[in-house]
Give the backbone structure.
Amino acid sequence: MSLEFQGKSIMLDKVDRAVRGDCPKAITDCLRDALCEMINDERIALPACVFEDHPHHYCRRLIHQNHQHGYSILAMTWGPGQGTPIHDHAGMWCVEAVWQGQIEVVQYELMESTEDRYRLEQRTVMRTGVGSAGSLIPPHEYHTIANPDQQQLAVTIHIYAGEMDHCSVFAPEGGDWYRRQNRRLSLDAA
């Protein structure tokens, strides 16, 4: 069930306009711009629950799922020091923006794979704060995301090309080699 909040219709109108294109790069560019505008739009106030963390894991909360245009919007709440393992986005583009706090994104490049073994090399480390947005377009989708702050929580908004209910995570095996594992993703209650 999606969350209701002040300014949701403004957010959805901006996202609907951005996703009407056919080219993933053009769509993600428009969405990045739209998210940066939304963060500074005083008419939009995310629901209080997205500013509440969980002590044992980051939280994924559904803001909206649009079946007509095929996208979903999630708010993610990152408690101090919480983060993800290396993962992909199941072949979907995604735009992520920092609404509160700061995050650190580490990007990896796929060098080779054999069955469920992947050689991934770390490429860039980006630490970003409120108002920054980035995108992932397959095949450049391997990354980690974390809240580097040990005292404050962070909130990010993620817009996916579809329903992000699964992904692959990559467990280290030594060197640049990782074993791919399928993971079902769940949503946290409001």
